Amino acid sequence: MLKMTHLSKVYRTEVVETYALRDFNIDVKEGEFVAVTGPSGSGKTTFLTIAGLLETFTGGQYHLDGIEVSQLDDNARSKIRNEKIGFIFQAFNLIPDLNVFDNVEVPLRYRGMKAPERKERIMGALERVGLASRAKHYPAELSGGQQQRVAIARALAGSPRLLLADEPTGNLDTQMARGVMELLEEIHREGATIVMVTHDPELAARAQRNVHIIDGQVVDLAEDPRFHAHVVEARQGQGRS
Amino acid sequence: MNIQIRPILIALRRHKAGTALIALQIALTLAIVCNALFIIHQRLANLSQASGVDEANVFVISNQWANADESTSQVDAQVRADLLALRQLPGVLDAAPASGYPLQGGGWDNLVTMTLDQVKPTTDAAVYLGDEHFINALGLKLVAGRNFRPDEVSVVGTQQNITPATVIVSKALADRLFPDGKALGKSFYAMGTTPSTIIGIIDPLHRQGVDLSSNRYAGQSLIWPLRSADVRGIHYIVRAKPGQLAAAMREAPKALLAQSRMRIIDPKDGIQDYAAIRQKVFETDRGMAVLMAIICVVLLAVTAAGIVGLTSFWVGQRRKQIGVRRALGARQRDILSYFLTENLLITGGGVLLGLLLAICMNLWLMLRFASQPMPMAYLIVGVLLLLVLGQGAVLAPALKASRVPPVEATRSV
Question: Domain of life of the organism in this record (chain A) (predicted)?
Answer without folding.
Answer: Bacteria
